[in-house]
Amino acid sequence: MDSALSTSAAASPMTAAGRLLAVLDAFSPGRRVLTLSEISRKAGLSLTTAHRLAGELVTWGALERDSDGRYRIGLHLLELAALAPRGLELRELAQPFLEDLFHSTRAHVHLAVRDGYEVVYVETLRARGAVSVLSRLGQRWPLHATGTGLALLAHADRDLQEKVLSSPLKRFTPKTVTDPRVLRRTLAEVRRTGIAVAEEQLTLDGVAIAAPIRGRGDEVVAAIGLVVHVDECEPRALVPVITACARGISRTLGAPSAKGTPGAIKGS
Q1: Separation CA 78–CA 25 (nearest Å)
Q2: pLDDT (tens digit, 9 = 90+) per residue, 129-173?
Q3: Into which CATH architecture does domain 88-258 fall?
Q4: Hey, which of 4, 101, 111, 135 has its CA 20 to 30 A from 141?
Q5: CATH 1.20.1740.10 is right for the domain spanning 9-80
Q6: What's in the keyword line of the UniProt record (predicted)?
Q7: Whole-angstrom Cα distance, residue 50 to residue 47?
Q8: Residues 179-209: tens digit of each pLDDT
């Protein structure tokens, strides 16, 4: 995944493991099925090397090869992903709360975690007929441009925050916050209120509201977000339901600050 803060793989020769990972990293939400030539080009490998490594990955189950000779991600990676505490395990624990939130708001619902300098969606529930969104399961976005990203960045350690603030902040719409001074004030407000609001920062017409989810040590481990049309409702009206959802998931994860808090969200 491209990132302004990512380390360039071209800075040094790739190891054997690095070449295997480069083959897998050639795939993305926009490149789900690839030919061998495309894998070779995206991974920066010769056709011979790409063919050998792709064959090894097919045998292991990380890739699958269809009748046309094209490759796609294999199911064995899904089995391994299920072991990640911030992936499928988190989704399973959060699912009842996410469904309550979805049915009570009829808005898009996102469950996200931070991975380095990006926010990754580990679950999305899309509302039919709601505002258009770009996010999908497994997709990554810069932390500064989404509601869940802001909630996570606001509670990240100071060194990480400073690195994000000092890096080029990508603009997605005219309203995307790219001024480090404004972003710094925004993060302080998120910490003060416990709620992040991102209005038309990733897509026009969409406003995101998000709240942090805490783990066993009360550290922020994930964020829950809603996306609605900017003209549909006042974002602050969604604070009670999204806060209840975040606290319910936090309580399930064993967060001391969330104990004794109702976990179910009443329908509106």
Answers
A1: 15
A2: 666 666 677 778 999 999 999 999 999 999 999 999 999 999 999
A3: 2-Layer Sandwich (3.30)
A4: 101
A5: no
A6: DNA-binding, Transcription, Transcription regulation
A7: 5
A8: 999 999 999 999 999 999 999 888 888 899 9
